[in-house]
Structures are given as structure tokens and as C-alpha cells.
Specification:
With 454 residues, the protein is an alpha+beta fold. The chain has 14 helices and nine strands.
């Protein structure tokens, strides 16, 4: 006789399975979660130690005074909007946020569209992206040298000075000055004049301060002014210096050379009635002068200091100059991202527009830009986040005297905390303000990324 044993009820099976449960699927899920926690835990610890803890500590520290011993509540946050240097940092940060991402997105879009027409597109992209491989420290040093005001050191001012001198011309004698006590007087406007002279006389105008080796190559030995005829005024402009000594001041000695190329005017009643240019030996002549008294004037343009270029790192231009360095670094980044979005555009749409008679500008404005709007937005917001944190370039490029004129929130936070201010309470408040300004842009980017993945 066969005995049939009935299966135990579900409750009995669950009880016999022990505390781990009877469902192997649940046990496998628990194991996977445990493995995931083990792998993620080091990253979470680092994130907490390097990000979460500093943020929380800065928030707490922002409510205390400079020493950290006295609670001041929102006093540091109120001080942010009372301190002129901090207000200037906020103003400069606003300029950065408005100007830099806009220009970068625009340049990136233009280069991304144009590079499609270039035969060597890959090489062009490589050249444009190469500055991204340079650290901000190295880039700052490069542009600090490029922006040097001395044209012999700064490449930009060397170029500007070369173009200026090509059109305006430079003074040949910026260091020349008249020898005192010999009839030539300097006027308030920088020109030099003589005493009153009558036609038929000659005058010697001796100058010093010009190194003999810097005289023009065509300068010849000077001679005393020749005898002048009626209605004529003659003279000589010369370097009143005898090599080796022995010359007489105020007299044209043997071996002393003339100063060619100087502009000379005959002045009567305050107005120039005749002009001349000195010859290779420094001589000049005015003819057909009416009777009366005249003064000889050498205009100030003969002695104007050389054009030194633009003060790129002065208070007025230091922020645009640093933004220019930032554009050099990040334009390639914007171009590559926008180029990736451009390559994903439906080509049939673009070709259909061209077949319907649209020119390239209409295709770009009406089709390419609207289709690229999501990519352009992401690039713009990413650059806004990056601009908010800019520090290296400003700290390196801006000279000490104009550091305050170029400061932004990041540099001001460092200066207040460690750069001499020693007020870490106010510095922490600036850090919290910077975090609050960056968070909306980060949230916007994350949401757009999630929407694009769904």
C-alpha cells in the first residue's frame, strides 16, 4: 500500500526556509545591492570628504566672524553688499557671465559651420582645440607676456605700434632738449622757440640729449648758418656735442652733426607764416619774408615720445583682456560640441531648403540655428558654470595694482580669506553665494540631460 504525503502549506515552507527568506530572487537582489554599495562606498566617502563636508563647513563658517569665535548671523552676507571691492567683483562676474559664454557660443557656432566647408577640417579642429590642453596657469603666463605694455616684450603692442608708426610716423628725437642759456626756450606745449629775429639773419639751434649712435643714418656734419639775403632767414639745427670733449656750447664745432628731418616754422604774431624741414646737415631756410620780426619755432611733434601701444592690463581694459585669453582657450571646446550637434542634423532638411531656393544665410538662420538650439543652450549653460569659477587667469594675468579692478567672486573669495584679508567668515559667505549662483545652472543642465535621455 502506497502512502502519499501531501506538500506542506506555504506558511510551513516559509518557516522552513529560515530567516533569509525562501525567494532566491530576493536574495540575489540583496547581493547585488551589497556589491553595488561596496563599489560605490569609496566614491561616496571621497565625495563626502571633498565636497559635502567642505560645503557644510563653509555654510556654518559663514555665520561667524573673522576669528570664528563669535556668531554674527547674516552679518557677513550683509557685508558682501556693503564692501566696494566685493560689489566690484559682483559687477565683473556679471560682465563675465554675460559676455564670455555669449561670445564663445557664437564663435563656436560660426567655426563649427565654417569648418564643414574646410578641406582639412580635422586639422583645423585640432588647432582650435589645442589650447584646451594648456593649463590655465600656462595660458595666463603666455597672455601676461603677450599683453606687456613694452613693445619690445609684448607681441600685441609690438603689432599695434608697428601699424601706428606705419601710418602716423614716429618722432626721430624724443629725447632731444635745447641747450639751456643759448637762445632756445621750451614752451608750455613742448615746442622750442627762439627770440625775435629779423630777415637777413641766421640762427644756430643747438640740442643735446640725443645719443650720437641714434642719429639718422643720413645726418651730416653741421656748418654755421650761411649769410642770409634780404627777406631771408637761415639757420641750422645741430647736436651740440663733440665726441671726446673740447667743443664750445652754443657754437657749431667741427665734427658736430646736424639733426635732419626736423620741422621748423617761422612765426609772426603767433601764427606760422612759413615752414621748412631741416636738411641732412641740419640747415633750413625761409625765403620771401616780409619786413618785421619773427621767431623760429620747432613744433612739439619733433620731440613727441614714441607711441607705446595700448595699456592692455590697465584698469579700463584688464577685464576685456582676460576675457580674450579665456576665449582663446575655450573656443575650441564650444566648436567641438556644437560641431557634434551639427553633424547629427538631418541633411535632407538642409538640402530641401537649398532646393527650394534658400541661400546659405537663410539656411543657417532659419534651419541650422533652430535645430541646434538645444545644443547651443547646453553649451551656453555649461560655459556659464565654468565662467562662475574662473580664478587662475585673473590671478595670473592681472598685475597687482589692477588686481582689484579685475577681481571676480572667486578671486575675491580667495583674497578675503587668504590673500591678506584673513576674514574666512566673509570668504565663506562669498563661497556660499557663488554656490547659490551656480546651482540653478547645474540643475538646468541636469534636467535637460535627463529629458534628452528619455
Amino acid at each position: 500500500m502506497t502512502t502519499v504525503t501531501a506538500p506542506p502549506p506555504p506558511a510551513a515552507r516559509a518557516a522552513s526556509a529560515g530567516p533569509r527568506g525562501a525567494n532566491p530572487r530576493q536574495r540575489a537582489r540583496r547581493r547585488r545591492r551589497l556589491v553595488a554599495v561596496v563599489f560605490v562606498l569609496p566614491a561616496l566617502l571621497l565625495l563626502g570628504a571633498l565636497v559635502v563636508y567642505p560645503v557644510l563647513f563653509s555654510v556654518g563658517r559663514s555665520f561667524f566672524d573673522a576669528s570664528g569665535s563669535r556668531f554674527v548671523g547674516g552679518g557677513n552676507y550683509a557685508e558682501i553688499f556693503r564692501d566696494p571691492a566685493t560689489l566690484k567683483a559682483i559687477r565683473n562676474s556679471t560682465i563675465w557671465v554675460v559676455v564670455a559664454p555669449t561670445l564663445l557660443t557664437g564663435f563656436g557656432l560660426i567655426f563649427a559651420v565654417l569648418v564643414e566647408k574646410v578641406r582639412w577640417a580635422s586639422a583645423f579642429k585640432l588647432l582650435m582645440f589645442m589650447p584646451m590642453a594648456v593649463s590655465f596657469l600656462a595660458a595666463g603666463i603666455i597672455f601676461r607676456l603677450a599683453y606687456e605694455e613694452d613693445p619690445d616684450k609684448g607681441v600685441l603692442n609690438a603689432a599695434v605700434t608697428g601699424v601706428h608708426d606705419a601710418f602716423e610716423g614716429a618722432s626721430s628725437y624724443p629725447t632731444a632738449r635745447a641747450r639751456e642759456g643759448h637762445g632756445v626756450v621750451k614752451a608750455a606745449d613742448g615746442s622750442y622757440t627762439t627770440a625775435a629775429l629779423a630777415p637777413g639773419t641766421g640762427v644756430g639751434l643747438g640740442f643735446v640729449g640725443v645719443p650720437p649712435k641714434e642719429l639718422p643714418g643720413d645726418a651730416r656734419p653741421a656748418s654755421p648758418p650761411a649769410a642770409a639775403g634780404p627777406g631771408e632767414l637761415r639757420g641750422v639745427v645741430y647736436l651740440d656735442f663733440t665726441a671726446g670733449g673740447g667743443g664750445r656750447p652754443g657754437t657749431v664745432d667741427a665734427g658736430e652733426r646736424g639733426l635732419p628731418g626736423m620741422s621748423v616754422e617761422a612765426v609772426r604774431d603767433g601764427a606760422a607764416v612759413a615752414t621748412a624741414t631741416t636738411a641732412a646737415d641740419g640747415s633750413f631756410r625761409f625765403g620771401d619774408l616780409a619786413k618785421g620780426s619773427y621767431t623760429v619755432r620747432l613744433p612739439a611733434q619733433n620731440f613727441a615720445p614714441p607711441y607705446e601701444g595700448v595699456s592692455w592690463l590697465g584698469p579700463a581694459l584688464v577685464t576685456p583682456a582676460i576675457i580674450g585669453a579665456y576665449l582663446w582657450i575655450w573656443t575650441g571646446f564650444a566648436m567641438v560640441l556644437i560641431g557634434a550637434g551639427l553633424s547629427a542634423l538631418p541633411r535632407d532638411t538642409l538640402e530641401a531648403a537649398r532646393m527650394d531656393g534658400a541661400n546659405e544665410w537663410q539656411v543657417f538662420r532659419r534651419i541650422t540655428v533652430p535645430l541646434l538650439a538645444p545644443v547651443l543652450t547646453v553649451v551656453f549653460v555649461t560655459l556659464v558654470i565654468n565662467v562662475m569659477k574662473v580664478f587662475d587667469l585673473i590671478y595670473i594675468i592681472a598685475p597687482g595694482p589692477v588686481q582689484e579692478d579685475a577681481t571676480v567672486l572667486a578671486t575675491q573669495m580667495w583674497l578675503v580669506s587668504f590673500g591678506g584679508g584673513n576674514n574666512q567668515g566673509l570668504g565663506s559667505a562669498l563661497g556660499v553665494l557663488l554656490l547659490l549662483l551656480v546651482i540653478p545652472a547645474m540643475v538646468f543642465n541636469v534636467r535637460r540631460f535627463r529629458r534628452s535621455q528619455s
